[in-house]
Amino acid sequence: MPNNIRTGVEINSQPQFYNHNKIWTKPFILAIIVVIILGVISLFTGVYDIRGQADGWDMFFITRVPRTAALMLTGAAMAMAGLVMQLITQNRLVEPTTTGTIEWAGLGLLTVYLLFPAPSLVLRMTGAILFSFIGTMIFFLFLRRVKLRSSLIVPIIGLMLGAVISAVSTFLGLLFQKTQSIESWFVGSFASVQIGRYEYLWLIVIVTILIFIFANRLTLAGLGEDVATSLGVNYSRLILFATGLISFAVGIVAAVIGNLPFLGLIVPNIVSMFRGDDLRSNLPWVCVIGMGTITFCDIISRTIIMPFELPVSLILGTLGSVVFIAILLRQRKLGG
């Protein structure tokens, strides 16, 4: 992103690099253990009596195992997307929800439904990924023409663009009577996840590997275009590559699960507060905490009004909103 995007942004929104390069530490191992415990709780949480029914263990492998695996993969994907976006924009308030990326993914899903009567999951994923990429690039290009005076302007612009795209999607859905086709996208939920309907989420592992391989270059990109270029990094190409990875992860999640707000905002900010912004050493932390956060929210969504189930996006959105406000207040306090 060019220099004018970073002009006037508060110091506290810039990446901070601490000497925390070790990954396998006692706190990290403890975090993994906590996530494993949450995963086990998720496996045995639900209305259906796994141990008391004849086909209980069949249902366990048909629904519970895929759901828990989907939670872990989705949590890692959205948290990573937020981490990369915050790094390359040098703004801690940026993530797919606050840049309009997720709304563009929804528009892509709707477009696929308009063009194909009964689209396959691959087609829906393709539409969501393509529109996520287009929307994210439009967001970046829009920022090129805006002289920022505050780090708060960036997410405000993204939220405004997202609201416009969401309005367009709603209008087209009502006009062509396709609202019911994408209704599940608006309420992100894991209730429908079962074997045969989540396997594409495993592609997120490839995204994770690629981000880890290019972590050092992405970290240099977070220092700014001039610094990255002087160190031999092709800044524009790297931004396109990072945008492609973000769009790929967000598009898959949007097609399979739906809208999951603020996860990419909560987790990277928590990690950055304690570990700075070294992408390579933070990535495992972000993945693990992302997994734990969404699994915890999903367990709450399944138990708070049993035998009914709330959409996990409702719990996640509530938690994310509180954290978002807390971060805004912290930014203001540090900036003052």
From TrEMBL:
Subcellular localization: Cell membrane
Domain of life per record: Bacteria
Membrane-crossing residue ranges in chain numbering: 28-48, 69-88, 100-116, 128-146, 152-176, 200-218, 238-271, 283-304, 310-329
Entry-linked CDD domains: TM_ABC_iron-siderophores_like
GO biological process: siderophore-iron import into cell
GO cellular component: plasma membrane
InterPro entries: ABC_BtuC-like (IPR037294), ABC_transptr_permease_BtuC (IPR000522)
Topology versus the membrane: Multi-pass membrane protein
Predominant localisation class: membrane
SUPFAM superfamilies: ABC transporter involved in vitamin B12 uptake, BtuC
A GO molecular-function descriptor: transmembrane transporter activity
Signal peptide: none
Family statement drawn from the similarity comment of this UniProt entry: Belongs to the binding-protein-dependent transport system permease family. FecCD subfamily.
Protein name: Iron chelate uptake ABC transporter family permease subunit
Organism: Paenibacillus agilis
Lineage: Bacteria, Bacillati, Bacillota, Bacilli, Bacillales
